[in-house]
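Quick start: what a row looks like.
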Amino acid sequence: MKPDPRSTRGATLAALATAAILASGPTFAADENVLTIYSGIPRNQAEAVVSAFSKDYGKPVSAKVLDSPVEELMAQARIEIKAGTPKADILWFDKPQLLTLSRESPKLLEQIESPHYGDLLDSVKTGDYRKLVPVGFVLYVLSYNTNKYSKETSPQSYADLLKPEYKGQIAFADPRSSAGIHNFFWLITDKLKNQKPYGWDYFREIKKNDPKLPTGHGAIRDLVISGERPIGIQFTFYLTGPIERGEKVGWNWPKEGVVAGEQTLGVIAKGSNQVAKDFAVWATSPKGQEVVAKLVALAPVSKKVDFKFPDGKTVQDIKVIPADAEAISKNRAEVVREFAKIMRQ
């Protein structure tokens, strides 16, 4: 399939605009005790994790966090890598996106040797996991505003989102800017493609329900809580905090299964920032895994950590479908093109 010229031109302009916006932000000084992190998770969560690490580490370590939709952060990182001046110490990205950058620049990331790898689930110890250090699972669920819907009247499955009654009620992230949503697209267009109503026809049908397509998941959380778009395809880690604060939001586990993406850390191979390497090792330890699970609500990848969601369920209690990072990395560009084409029709 040939790229649509308008799509290509739009993507180029978007990348340049993103680079200009990010480049206008703060310039981070090279300081071993200050970790510069390009983060796909919210800034306050990443900063809290580094603060907990600092306490365990025994000396002050702070974080300067750039958090944006991962596709935008990737555009910024590519510009810096091409110029030979990467500013980040750590990339905290979804695995497919970090895998893509690592393949584009094979010498970009340090190999991290952790004594805790033996404690990790076998499912995450695949490929080059010493460079793409696994730190947790992100799980996709169906969030809803509890003022607008009850647990029973809200969607129970992705197929439910195609019902006319949900027209104008739905939000999910745009794959042209969001990295994590590619896990959901993989589930619908690849894993379930031979079952109705899935495959690319699913997106042709959901378009009829006029979904809102924010660039990232923070906006979806806000739309659901406000009731402007009371149904959202969302990560659990964007919902646990609001639920604990008493916000009018809940979630259902999709009947098709809960697609699980892997969050990873990559330490940029520049100089000898030992603190960044030590942070990555700590993140794989039982203590680090407990902190990440508590502060970020990522499901742990360590077998030594117990973790429960707000409804009391554990990862073992739900039907988890691990996302195929290799397939997502390989097909990202095609997914973006096909989705853009559908949205223009």
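That is the whole record. The two ends are 16 Å apart (CA to CA). The chain is about 40% helix and 15% strand.
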